[in-house]
Sequence to fold (335 residues):
Amino acid sequence: MDLDVFVSAHRAEWDRLDALLRRRRRLTGAEADELVALYQRTATHLSLIRSSAPDPRLTGRLSQLVARARSAVVGTRTASWRDVTHFLGRGFPAAVYRARHWWVPTALVSTAVAILLGWWIGTHPDVQSSIAAPARLRELTRPGGEYETYYSSHPASAFAAQVWTNNAQAAAMCLVLGVFLGLPVLWILFQNMLNLGVGFGLMSSAGRLDTFLGLVLPHGLLELTAVFVAAGTGLRLGWTLVDPGPRPRRTALAEEGRAAVGMAIGLALVLFVSGAIEGFVTPSGLPTGARIGIGVAAELAFLAYVYVLGGRAARMGETGDLAATERSASVPTAA
Fold:
């Protein structure tokens, strides 16, 4: 595309659209029709320039022009409870379901890594001595020690809020930093598995693995699943940079990025539930079986939510991205 020729051919249309948007008086019927037609043509021009001859200055000008025209044509849209129910009932579970081929393997591999690290630490006293002095390790793992009192060290509500905030930040970092080819996601994931493996190994070496699992499983099943979903989605976002498929790389990143932002909001709600369990159920006086049963029930409910509601919505075409009317206009591309 000869950009100068293209600009010369269509500048008058863009200027006319800008003039119509600046009108302070109410547009006539003919002017409104003209505005819609110019908006559609300018959106197409913007897509052509982005794909064939990207020029930052011209792209920025036309992007602003198209955004103003879209606002004038469709009006300013405000969120409603209908949007919330659509997001929770279709958008979020569908996005998690579509990412299952990334987060399920991530969960399996990460769990295996945590178990191997725990076995290595638990069966090698020299490794344990490199973590802390023997007296310190006994203080951590003894009955009534720090591993047990950690969950009741603060008021339940404050502890649940702190846990929720920390986990939501970790999940958001996995989603956002995935754009850097997924490398920061792998590091965050390894740090989480290392912490889990250390606790697993130290408590098992002290003969108190059952106590450790009774403290971790009630909230850990749902919490770790949310982390695995965030990590898997972040890795998929990073892979989109490498292989965007039939879509232009910019379009692919935009679509996957918008879906990832929506998942960050949904996962924050999931982590709120796991934080409440960790704050109120884990340190409670309930029998170990009852506490673990609550954690298993929460995990099964989430999986059913994803695979039943999310699977149905995904098969109906839901992706977790914005609706077509809310996305930037684009032209078809050949596969």
About this structure: The CA atoms of residues 219 and 278 lie 5 Å apart. The radius of gyration is 26 Å. The first helix runs from residue 3 to 22. Residues 324-335 have pLDDT under 50 and may be disordered.
